[in-house]
Amino acid sequence: MENHNKPKELLAFGRVLRELRKENQMTQDQLSLFSRVDRSYISELENGEKAPSLLTIISLTKALHISLAAFFKRFEDEMKL
Known about the structure:
Lambda_DNA-bd_dom_sf
């Protein structure tokens, strides 16, 4: 699926997730291990192909050492771009 067909919210979420993962110097495999979220699903999230559940977001933010509030602030900022 091309980016112009994907909801901007999913694309913004994916960009923030990828940025945080890289800031934490993690591969998708490492994030998968620490969050217990499948690596292929992380890839789909980063590419704006899937919408995560709240429980998935909580697992990812814990693994990335960021609070939900801080994560959603970054998401909100990304949505303004």
